[in-house]
Amino acid sequence: MNRLVYILNGPNLNLLGKRQPHIYGHETLTNVEAECRKVASEHGLEIRFHQSNREYEIIDWIHEARETAIGIVINPAAFTHTSVAILDALNTFEPTVIEVHISNVHKRETFRHHSYVSLRADGVIAGLGIQGYSLAIQRIARLNETKK
Ligand code: CA2
Question: Which of 9, 12, 124 is the pocket-test mutation for ligand 1 (most atoms within 8 Å of CB)?
Fold first, then answer.
């Protein structure tokens, strides 16, 4: 049975925990990955965890997920606000998509209030810090359970 979840992270998130801790906290992306693996395994799920500063790599991982995954958790970072290409790719993916933002984008600059990805996302989590990733995985696990 397929139990794979893709967790995709956009540009500059490799700097998590190393810069701007007042906005993004002190946890690194490595810590986020470890937490995601823990939560996923508690629910019998497997994850593919990726980060890229290149739009096309994120699109390629979404295409890869189409063949195999039961859900995508995506923090597209700045591509959230600019990328029709990522929206188009997500529109080809049928299972659950959850959009995660570490910060509360609605409390920030107005250009962060619009998300192309939200036009496809089944759920959006913002402002809950890195806990948002765990909650998104739990949601995908729950939906997968109720589907059986
Ligand atoms: O709050 C989020 O998770 C964001 O997706 C983060 C993006 C930002 O463009 C979105 O509006 C909201 C920025 C990611 C940059 O990450 C950094 C982490 C540490 C230091 C510098 C950048």
Answer: 12
Whether 1 has a pLDDT exceeding 80, the answer reads no
Beta bridge partners of 100: 125
pTM reported for the whole predicted model: 0.97
Phi, psi (degrees; rounded to nearest 5) at 115: -125, 120
Report which of 148, 142, 147, 146 is spatially closest to residue 43, judged by C-alpha positions.
142
Q: Is 101 in the pocket of ligand 1 (CB under 6 A)?
A: yes
Ligand 1 centroid vs 45 CA: distance in angstroms?
A: 26
The enclosing domain of 83 has a CATH number of: 3.40.50.9100
pLDDT, mean over the chain: 96
Task: Give the nearest ligand 1 atom to 104 CA.
Answer: 1
Enzyme catalytic residues:
24, 101
Does 78 sit in the ligand 1 pocket, CB within 6 Å? yes
Q: How many distinct structural domains can be found in the chain?
A: 1
